[in-house]
Amino acid sequence: MMKGGLGGGSKKEGKMRIRAFPMTMDERYVENIWSLLKSAIQEIQKKNNSGLSFEELYRNAYTMVLHKHGERLYNGLREVVTHHLESKVRQDVLASLNNNFLQTLNQAWNDHQTSMVMIRDILMYMDRVYVQQNNVDNVYNLGLIIFRDQVVRYGGIRDHLRHILLEMVVRERKGEVADKLSVRAACQMLMVLGIDSRAVYEEDFERPFLSQSAEFYRSESQRFLGENSASVYIKKVEARINEESERAKHYLDESTEQRIVAVVEEELIQKHMKTIVEMENSGVVHMLKCQKTDDLHCMYKLLGRVSDGLRTMASCVSAHLREEGKALVNVDESGANALNFVQSLLDLKDRYDTFLVKSFVNDPIFKKMISSDFEYFLNLNLKSPEYLSLFIDDKLKKGVKGMTEQDIELVLDKTMVLFRFLQEKDIFERYYKQHLAKRLLLNKSVSDDSEKNMISKLKTECGCQFTSKLEGMFKDMSISNMLMEDFKNHIQTSGTSLCGVDLSVRVLTTGFWPTQSPATCTLPLAPRNAFEVFRRFYLAKHSGRQLTLQPGLGSADLSAIFYGPRREESELKEKSDGPSSSTSSTSANGPRKHIISVSTYQMCILMLFNTRDRLTYDDIMNETDIPKKDLDRALQSLAMGKPTQRVLVKSPKGKDILPSSIFAVNDSFTSKLHRVKIQTVAAKGESEPERKETRSKVDEDRKHEIEAAIVRIMKARKTMQHNVLVSEVTEQLKSRFLPSPVIIKKRIEGLIEREYLARTPEDRKVYTYVA
Amino acid sequence: MDLGEDVSSMFGKRSKTNSNSTVNRSRTKGMEEAPTSFNQKKCIAWFRQYSTPNNADTIGPEGVEAFCRDLNVEPENIALLVLSWKMGAKQMGFFTLQEWLLGLTDLQCDSLAKLQGKLNYLHSLLLDSSNFKSIYRYAFDFSRDKDQRSLDVETAKAMLGLLLGRQWSLLNSFFQFLDQSRYRVLNKDQWCNVLEFSRAVDVDLKNYDVDGAWPVMLDEFVEWLKVTRGESIIQ
């Protein structure tokens, strides 16, 4: 027995000599060592390792390698292992093909691993030295390779293994029981056999698994679709995904999870998403209609898994939203009611905001799409700006029933959201001014604060230019109040008579307030004189200014006495049996005094009857000079409204006012109220010709705005190419309206003609500013 | 028209020659005259043959007509336009003494015969493209009513016919377009751009650049032309 270690023999006295280790071993010796090792290995393989001495075997292996017989050892090892696996193990496994195959294979695998570990330990020196130097597989890996090639990938075994594993999966999917642990063990084995890659697992199991799964899910999808319900489909898909996920995590290899889920997503979602989304009576549209926020959320989650899934869903939602929006917006003329119009749009926005938050988790794709849809259909109806203004007008007027300040604030904020979508904001501005003017002048605002609040909201959206005129209007109101104070003092101190007229004047700065069509009418003497007093007073204070009376905006309170019998009495004459109990007349038989609140025009009309009993329409028109449209409206309110409003009577009776119609004071006028306010037949929206006029005014304004923008830009930049100029102009104006490139071009041409701009001689597409 | 090198050597030359120099080397037809140098007095006297009775410093429309007759040139002849351009004449149908002298001194003509000899030269100026452009632009101001900024469509068509009649094949289509359009006048920018258009855009309109900053009128012309050719449908 050779002793390991350096230095053999005895130490010589004195000199320490290190003798070279005897390198040669004779063949017989090597053979012996190898036999020893071989049988040891075989014993290990037979699981009879208990009687072996680790130290001895290790030493032997070490010796062989040291004496440069590593190769022999290595080859020998390979032979032994191969032989064992080939002749014993494989046979065992093959025998078990139809009987406990997986368990047998697993057992064989475990045994192999155990024995290889032990073998490796014995041959560790070879691993460290020989294997390293010769760049061959180490012992353990060698064992794996042989096991892989001789057992696992041996024809029949390989196929059967695959078959069994796939079989298990099929059963599981059907809901039957399968031997999960064996499957797991087998998969782990395959993973290990790949050594540093998952190639074996992939080729022998995963690839066929994935392709079988794809087929399976292909038919599953048809089955699911057959149920014809999107929400059911989604739930089933979710269930399957979870199932596959679990299976991969626990029983296959973890790395498969991502891949199998991708297969399910592909087969069940990607390929059918359009069908699901568009499914009749259960798809997205149905869910939207029935407010099924949860179902939508499930679908959202599901479709979010595949590329373009969300976009498919979003475009379906968008199409439906646009339809809903269009339906709301395309109300025809007669049915159009501004308040309903806007309210229905606000309700629609609320609904979709709920969807956005609850179903779509504030996803930016959906958010953007909802905004662009609203922008699209809101601007389909050219009256949207007007309606929006009327809606806000309604909310700012006194008598908004049942809403607290917070409620109103909330509604106005939501209205601002719609406002943002308007493309023709300049038209809105025009109407807002008109409506605000009416509110201020007729004293209809709920509160100054709410008005100012609204204006600051608009300022935030559109900048000061938008709101500066509106603010000017407010200023005028407060200045007018102060002015009236001064005027009253002036009257008192100077003792001037106002002819019995209690005059209140509001002075409006022309640029701020909406332009009125110049209208004059012939005022009755008393108010006319009273106004003259004021005019003189004012012009004394502000020389150089011009005051023009606006009869269309004023109002008057008239004190009226009616001498005729009360209205009811003349209708009570019938019911008498026996002696006519004349209880009729005596109660308050005297003349009735009332205060009638009317518009200026109505005042002019009524005052005529102080000197005359009856007048024809023509008479009235000639004497008052009131424009026909206003005259008709005024007379309608006075003569053809509710009985408690009918201060005048018209003959002949009937709906039409003709030039020959005759008007007279209604002597029987009766009202429970002392002060009667005559409601003007208010035109809720504009009439068609009025609207056309507004629009043409807007177009005029736009021309100027475009030209101003062009000049502004060119003045700053001196020269600019045509396309660049057009896009800059569009950019600058887009917060007010969207000018078309053709219109901008026309304006450029106009400016060229008037020599503000010129084309450069070198390039006719480039303009230059003419100073 | 065969111009020969003597004319081409005068190409673009608009320099004022002084009255003592250069012999007029023109080809004369018919009337032979011994070449004499330019005489301003003679030129003025010649002017006075046509000037109006109440204003000796202006030739009015009848005078112009007579002048043309004597020159043996129709008033619509483009040579007259070129001559007016040379003179810097402000208003069609009128020449002032100043304008007369300016133009004729440049041409070194103080008599009918000499001027007749220069007619070919005048025609030749049109061949140079920058001269042509200048003459074209001049034509607008020359032919418009002085108290209007724009040129009425009928006069415009006449001038365009004169100037572009031979070189722009789309001219007639353009006239048809104008006839059926609302346009009653052309402004200067539109006028100038018609020339550019005739030079830049092919008959088949394929290279018409919609973003080319052409005046709206020309955009409309192209659109109309495409429709009439059946190439597009107006919505």
TrEMBL record, chain A:
<dbReference type="GO" id="GO:0006915">
    <property type="term" value="P:apoptotic process"/>
</dbReference>
<dbReference type="Pfam" id="PF00888">
    <property type="entry name" value="Cullin"/>
</dbReference>
<dbReference type="Pfam" id="PF26557">
    <property type="entry name" value="Cullin_AB"/>
</dbReference>
<dbReference type="InterPro" id="IPR016158">
    <property type="entry name" value="Cullin_homology"/>
</dbReference>
<dbReference type="GO" id="GO:0016192">
    <property type="term" value="P:vesicle-mediated transport"/>
</dbReference>
<feature type="compositionally biased region" description="Basic and acidic residues">
    <location>
        <begin position="685"/>
        <end position="701"/>
    </location>
</feature>
<dbReference type="InterPro" id="IPR036317">
    <property type="entry name" value="Cullin_homology_sf"/>
</dbReference>
<dbReference type="GO" id="GO:0000278">
    <property type="term" value="P:mitotic cell cycle"/>
</dbReference>
<dbReference type="GO" id="GO:0007165">
    <property type="term" value="P:signal transduction"/>
</dbReference>
<dbReference type="GO" id="GO:0006950">
    <property type="term" value="P:response to stress"/>
</dbReference>
<dbReference type="GO" id="GO:0005737">
    <property type="term" value="C:cytoplasm"/>
</dbReference>
<dbReference type="GO" id="GO:0031625">
    <property type="term" value="F:ubiquitin protein ligase binding"/>
</dbReference>
<dbReference type="GO" id="GO:0051301">
    <property type="term" value="P:cell division"/>
</dbReference>
<dbReference type="InterPro" id="IPR016159">
    <property type="entry name" value="Cullin_repeat-like_dom_sf"/>
</dbReference>
<dbReference type="InterPro" id="IPR016157">
    <property type="entry name" value="Cullin_CS"/>
</dbReference>
<dbReference type="InterPro" id="IPR001373">
    <property type="entry name" value="Cullin_N"/>
</dbReference>
<keyword id="KW-0813">Transport</keyword>
<dbReference type="InterPro" id="IPR059120">
    <property type="entry name" value="Cullin-like_AB"/>
</dbReference>
<dbReference type="GO" id="GO:0000209">
    <property type="term" value="P:protein polyubiquitination"/>
</dbReference>
<feature type="region of interest" description="Disordered">
    <location>
        <begin position="682"/>
        <end position="701"/>
    </location>
</feature>
<feature type="region of interest" description="Disordered">
    <location>
        <begin position="569"/>
        <end position="591"/>
    </location>
</feature>
<dbReference type="InterPro" id="IPR036390">
    <property type="entry name" value="WH_DNA-bd_sf"/>
</dbReference>
Automatic annotation (TrEMBL), chain B:
<dbReference type="Pfam" id="PF03556">
    <property type="entry name" value="Cullin_binding"/>
</dbReference>
<dbReference type="GO" id="GO:0097602">
    <property type="term" value="F:cullin family protein binding"/>
</dbReference>
<dbReference type="InterPro" id="IPR005176">
    <property type="entry name" value="PONY_dom"/>
</dbReference>
<feature type="domain" description="DCUN1">
    <location>
        <begin position="38"/>
        <end position="226"/>
    </location>
</feature>
<feature type="region of interest" description="Disordered">
    <location>
        <begin position="1"/>
        <end position="35"/>
    </location>
</feature>
<dbReference type="InterPro" id="IPR042460">
    <property type="entry name" value="DCN1-like_PONY"/>
</dbReference>
<dbReference type="GO" id="GO:0045116">
    <property type="term" value="P:protein neddylation"/>
</dbReference>
<dbReference type="InterPro" id="IPR011992">
    <property type="entry name" value="EF-hand-dom_pair"/>
</dbReference>
<dbReference type="GO" id="GO:0031624">
    <property type="term" value="F:ubiquitin conjugating enzyme binding"/>
</dbReference>
<dbReference type="InterPro" id="IPR014764">
    <property type="entry name" value="DCN-prot"/>
</dbReference>
<dbReference type="GO" id="GO:0000151">
    <property type="term" value="C:ubiquitin ligase complex"/>
</dbReference>
<protein>
    <recommendedName>
        <fullName>Defective in cullin neddylation protein</fullName>
    </recommendedName>
</protein>
<dbReference type="GO" id="GO:0032182">
    <property type="term" value="F:ubiquitin-like protein binding"/>
</dbReference>
<comment type="function">
    <text>Neddylation of cullins play an essential role in the regulation of SCF-type complexes activity.</text>
</comment>
